[in-house]
Amino acid sequence: MNIQNLSLQYDDMDAPVLQNVTFSLGEKECVLLLGASGSGKSTLSRCLTGIYPKELEGMMEGEVTFEGMPVNEASPGTMSRRVGTVFQDPETQFCMLTVEDEVAFGLENICVPSEKMEKRVETALEEVGLLHRKKAAVISLSGGEKQKLALACILAMEPPVIVLDEPTANLDPVATDEFIALLSSLKELKNITIFVIEHDLDPWIDITDRVLMLGRNGSLFYDGPLQQGVDRYARDLYEEGIAVPGAVRMAMETGTATPPYPLTARGLAAGLSAPLKAVSGRENGPALIQASGISYKSIFSNVDITISEGSFTAIAGPNGSGKTTLSRLLAGIDPVSSGRLTRPFPDKDWFQHAGYVFQNPEHQFLTDSVWEELAYSGAGDEKIEELLEWCGLTDRKDFHPFTLSQGEKRRLSVATMLVKDQEILFLDEPTFGQDAKSTSRLMDLLKEKHRAGTTIVMITHDMDLVDRYATGVVVMKDRKIGFTGNPDELWNEDLVAFQLKEPFRVRTNRLIKGDMYVPQ
Amino acid sequence: MYLNNLNPSVKALTILGLVVALALLFDPVTPALFTLVTIAVTFLFGDFRRKYYLFYLIPFTIFAVGMLWTTIAFADAPKNPSETVGLIWWEVPREDVLVAVSLSFRVLAFATMSLLFIFTTNMVEFLLSLMQQLRLPPKLAYGIMAGYRFLPMLTTEFRQIRAAHRVRGMGQESRWKRYRRFAVPLLAGAIRKAERTAVAMESKGFTGTRERTFYRNIRVRKKDWLFPAGMGAIFLLLILLSLRFDYFSWYQGQL
């Protein structure tokens, strides 16, 4: 597959999304395209599959060819037999109700005879390990299973090229690793070219043959092997919003390595003599919110938990384990069905003292501009200026909140919750779907607030964040509290049972000690 | 069970035909009998959660009773005011009662027939059958299917937004203004989701043309004709009965 001088601009935007992008995909290659959110990655994937220029409202120049044939000349539907796509959002890429119907949908579209379909559906489901869920309803699958199903749908159509557009962005770390392991075994098994679009490089290191790096201005700035790319651009990658591998980040932060940087924990450990230290200051203050024996409907019963004053508490655990329910109860959004919940402020003006940042920032916006959004919460002009400055949105103050980028929306939603200098802030997976740069900006802001005395309760899957910022951690499992205490104690527990992944620092330290612990 | 395995298009057309036929008649007895027959057929040949059926029937029954009362209370001036019947403590013209009863049973007959269909039909099979037997364009059918998946997502999203707004301290404003604020994020979310689903469908080769094969082939078998034949026969029998006992009447705009 060849992409020549591809440039693309949408009608309603001033700057082009893609500029002069040229690269090629060889047979059986696994190529990783790195780029921040908003850098035109998804646009590029649509060009590869021939959806653009057909559905494009804008201008597209350059040429995309498949085996020498221009993609835009292919008749509608034929491209789907050549290039299959797995999308980012597990919820919105299906249109049927059951697993088997969904896989068959693609086959029906390309007119596979009915008699042959059953066999192909079963083979595809077998390959991704979902055969036992053949008759299940799509809604009953977990996020990880949904992405595997999406892959099965593509495999059934047997295209030579598979494009994956941030396939693991909405999955927890364990499901991410499982998905990538599946992909790498399929790569060995079948002759497929894999093109992955990502902003987080870490989990993909092992299966990548070559990387492309896409800048915020929409042009490629690197095309070649991973090691050289990282060595040359490690610092720029951060600026571009791409997550550098954990090993490289650690190496740069601790100054323990120079290029060529180690790419994996093993490589980093080989060059270290002493274990990497944990952040200090994990002592907790007196209890602020105390729950004893609280229950909520049939979701969970008899939960005891204490949030201490001035703590940074992380709530972790697999999807569906009750993390969100717990934090909503603690935050007083849902009333407890029974049990005792002691909060430091009266119910009447509780939300003057506590803020809750929802998973989707758009849900919380009420007005038509960034400025009004903060004013609505009751801030004076001076306070608004200060908050805008704090979250870096001063030059965006007249924008409609919905037109901001993902990272900006998130920061605004946090800012609206801090207008009254709330003492307690709850956040529901604030780093989900954010690129590396906006994640670290957000975390810096939260750290600053935490230092100033705000109590923070944050739901997260990311153990690296827990390791770096949290002073306390609560792990939910099967709608019960599985663990509560200090993060450093948690790393000695059986993390696999909690569906959590060791933070990078801990993994590296284990390898230094010569521990033959192999994470799957 | 027979009704669940019946070809959905045949079932739908039969019910549609019966509804039209029933709409042409206007006497109290035929729809009443037909309602009973429909319920009996549903329970004998259908497989579904019995409790839910009754649960769904209740609002229709209340509606029918309400209709009975309003029709009597607000009836036109009767032609034979002398002929009255005693309705508990209330003397009403016989004619008005007949019209009201006919109307109420009509409502019930339509309701039970719809319930028969809803409770014994799988939505996906119905859409597949509409495409395969009645040539419904796939573009429409799969659009409905995708939309059907969206409904539960929209309700969860609505709840999320409501909670999120409450945290922001909403509640002093009028209800109308509050709902208007819900609309923007809800619509923005829905449009984005719809677009993503459309792109995903297209990338799986969906073009909306009729040229496609089917994983599940829905056919019309001989035994499927038993349902229209049986229901038609019962209907004719009821009409013969009404002619025999001389209460048959066409619908002539009574109300």
TrEMBL record, chain B:
Name under which the protein is recorded: Energy-coupling factor transport system permease protein
Organism in which the protein naturally occurs: Salimicrobium humidisoli
Residue intervals passing through the bilayer: 12-45, 52-77, 97-119, 225-245
Top-rank taxon, per record: Bacteria
Keyword field: Membrane, Transmembrane, Transmembrane helix
Record's bilayer topology term: Multi-pass membrane protein
Compartments in which it is found: Membrane
Any Pfam family the entry gives: CbiQ
Primary localization: membrane
